[in-house]
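Researcher: I'd like a candidate sequence for this fold, 729 residues long. If you have to choose between options at a position, lean toward the conservative one.
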């Protein structure tokens, strides 16, 4: 585990030291062909990471017990704690494979790019931080590496260094910093309330705090809300999703694939831990997550359908699929609450039905996280292939690019249909489990007479319909992209002829990267009991202790489950025809047109307007008011308590101290002349000292106004603060 977490950091430093003076990629415009050594090094590093993790996995799978725990003390006054479990192993292995796949693809995509060594350095650092997040055994460790990951991945977005990339990177970094501060505040509240940040211990303390001690959970709700702001931003959950479209569009395609496939899952992982640890069995929090999931799912789907950019459409698709996953997290919380209420009320009815429904939610959430990662790797890599050949992501420009390109056509179709939940493909399996968890929960709350605060069977029916409708939205925007790329012809016949004549549009390494992911999609979908069920069984260890994994065969291809998929497919066909073929193409000569007005840009007209204009304006007014109050108090004090006293006479120069000191020194000089029998000549000490005082005062003012003095005082204050902290600790 030490190797898996810290090897990428060490490798990043080595790659940087070896590559900083290399001529490889230093000049992207050079026609000289140089062997792509850094690309091969990155592939080898990621392969070593996979081997290490697979060794840990087989060791753990055979023993079926905690493989290892690791603690590193002396970090921030606490310790970094790691552990290896089934759930963590699934996503650690998925992470290593995703990096290996994208490094294969980057061999071609980044071949003529600039600053590749810098990109590789931060890529490996992000890999190490992501590994540490999934292996984290407490919230402090998770937060520590979550912040590292946010700053290293920020370089991905800013990599191109264009004006658009810098704008997107600024938004990404701003939300990441604000989210990190929110998480930190949440950790302070959790630690002060429960006295621990260790996973497992938090949930036990939270149960005792809320249910045994009957304490108000307000502080835990505030803490959970703060942590949701940070983790939700990384997961692209509404309403902190505004960084997503531009950041995904501006980052290089391999980086975007990792942002969507893996980094978004770190945010989901954080939300899942908050739901299971900080507020376990709390219905109100679970309802909040469920509602956020539904809004994210629907809004991302609608934006995806009406978007006129290939990469941005896939970005909104990621947002929508994260909504599906959050629905699963919310259902876990609700079913956990139902089980716990059933236990503490000592109900006589069998709890196995609740446990089975909970299993559906847990397995559906885990599997959809995995399936979404596989699909998004393919989609963003294919978007990268399109960009390499066309130089744009606009639908009207990429139209017809893939008409005679069988490999990417089949790969894209598998990924699009998979994420759309088409039967016999991977997304159908996970979406079926999530859908069935909603259906089963609706039945259960009708059977068990447990008071509900808001949800009723009718309201849950609405959520179920929105779930199926969102599946239809997925079908609609994926159909739009498939038709644009592989069915329709470009409006410019010469451009279309160039597209049709392209033979070498993709390298072998990129084909391998895309093909490996595409092969998994039907394999999971056709053999779910062999693949998906075993993954779910192995990863089922991030749940409350009173929940047990129940070996029950899910009939994925029953008429009931297939009917849910068919409803989504039919809804998708209707949405595609009305919103895409009729609304977006209403002006045929203009091609695809985004119907969303510019003023509906939340990031620009809500968040930036709020934090860059409204908040500074309000704080400026408050500062002026406080400044005026202080000035008024000073004036009143000077006119009363500290009123000025009139001087007996006005000094011509200097001040009172210089005047007295000058007179004293003059008298000493006079005494000396008398004793030494010398002629007395006035030295005029007062005037000399007054001139020197003025010179020193002016020099001090010049130094005080200099930047170097300010930096010196800042460093001095920082040093004193560190000395104080060391003395206190």
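Model: Candidate sequence:
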């Amino acid at each position: 585990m030490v190797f898996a977490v810290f090897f990428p950091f060490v490798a990043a430093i080595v790659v940087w030291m070896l590559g900083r003076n290399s001529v490889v990629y230093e000049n992207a415009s050079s026609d000289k062909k140089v062997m792509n050594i850094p690309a091969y090094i990155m592939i080898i590093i990621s392969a070593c990471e996979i081997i290490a993790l697979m060794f840990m996995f087989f060791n753990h799978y055979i023993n079926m017990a905690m493989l290892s725990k690791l603690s590193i003390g002396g970090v921030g006054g606490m310790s970094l704690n790691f552990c290896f479990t089934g759930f963590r192993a699934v996503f650690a292995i998925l992470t290593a494979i995703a990096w290996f796949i994208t490094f294969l693809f980057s061999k071609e995509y980044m071949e003529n790019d600039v600053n590749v060594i810098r990109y590789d350095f931060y890529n490996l650092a992000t890999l190490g931080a992501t590994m540490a997040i999934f292996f984290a055994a407490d919230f402090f460790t998770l937060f520590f590496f979550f912040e590292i990951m946010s700053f290293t991945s920020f370089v991905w977005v800013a990599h191109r260094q264009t004006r658009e990339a810098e704008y997107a990177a600024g938004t990404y970094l701003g939300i990441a910093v604000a989210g990190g501060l929110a998480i930190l505040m949440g950790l302070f509240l959790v630690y002060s309330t429960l006295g621990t940040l260790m996973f497992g211990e938090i949930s036990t303390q939270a149960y005792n705090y809320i249910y045994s001690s009957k304490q108000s959970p307000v502080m835990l709700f505030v803490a959970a809300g703060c942590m949701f702001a940070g983790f939700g931003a990384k997961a692209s959950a509404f309403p902190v999703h505004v960084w997503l479209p531009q950041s995904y569009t501006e980052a290089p395609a391999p980086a975007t694939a990792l942002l969507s496939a893996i980094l978004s899952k770190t945010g989901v992982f954080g939300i899942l831990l908050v739901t299971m640890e900080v507020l376990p069995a709390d219905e109100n929090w679970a309802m909040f997550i469920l509602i956020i999931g539904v809004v994210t799912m629907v809004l991302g789907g609608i934006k995806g359908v009406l978007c006129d950019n290939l990469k941005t459409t896939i970005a909104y698709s990621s947002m929508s699929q994260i909504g599906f996953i959050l629905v699963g997290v919310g259902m876990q919380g609700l079913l956990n609450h139902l089980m716990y209420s059933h236990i503490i009320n000592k109900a006589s009815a069998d709890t196995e039905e609740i446990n089975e429904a909970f299993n559906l939610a847990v397995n559906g959430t885990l599997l959809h996280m995995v399936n979404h990662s596989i699909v998004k790797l393919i989609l963003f890599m294919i978007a990268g292939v399109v960009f390499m050949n066309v130089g744009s992501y606009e639908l009207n420009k990429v139209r017809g690019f893939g008409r005679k390109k069988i490999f990417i056509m089949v790969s894209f179709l598998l990924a699009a249909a998979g994420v759309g939940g088409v039967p016999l493909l991977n997304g159908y399996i996970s979406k079926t489990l999530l859908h069935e968890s909603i259906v089963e929960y609706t039945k259960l709350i009708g059977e068990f007479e447990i008071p509900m605060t808001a949800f009723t069977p009718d309201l849950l029916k609405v959520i179920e319909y929105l779930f199926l409708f969102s599946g239809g939205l997925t079908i609609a925007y994926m159909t739009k992209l498939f038709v644009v790329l592989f069915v329709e012809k470009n409006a410019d016949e010469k451009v279309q002829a160039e597209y049709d004549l392209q033979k070498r549009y993709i390298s072998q390494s990129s084909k391998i990267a895309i093909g490996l992911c595409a092969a998994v999609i039907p394999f999971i979908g056709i053999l779910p009991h062999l693949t998906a069920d075993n993954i779910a069984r192995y990863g089922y260890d991030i749940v409350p202790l009173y929940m047990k994994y129940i070996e029950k065969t899910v009939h994925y291809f029953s008429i009931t489950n297939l009917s849910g998929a068919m409803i989504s497919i039919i809804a998708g066909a209707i949405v595609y025809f009305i919103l895409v073929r009729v609304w977006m193409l209403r002006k045929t000569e203009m091609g695809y047109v985004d119907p969303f007005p510019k003023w509906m840009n939340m990031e620009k007209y809500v968040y930036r307007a709020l934090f860059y204009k409204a908040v500074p304006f309000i704080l400026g007014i408050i500062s002026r008011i406080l400044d005026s109050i202080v000035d008024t108090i000073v004036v009143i004090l000077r006119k009363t308590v500290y009123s000025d006293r009139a001087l007996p006479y006005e000094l011509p120069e200097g001040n009172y101290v210089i005047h007295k000191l000058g007179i004293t020194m003059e008298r000493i000089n006079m005494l000396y002349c008398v004793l030494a029998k010398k002629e007395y000549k006035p030295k005029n000490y007062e005037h000399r000292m007054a001139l020197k005082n003025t010179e020193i005062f002016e020099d001090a003012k010049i130094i005080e106004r200099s930047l170097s003095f300010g930096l010196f005082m800042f460093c001095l204050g920082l040093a004193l603060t560190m000395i104080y902290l060391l003395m206190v600790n």
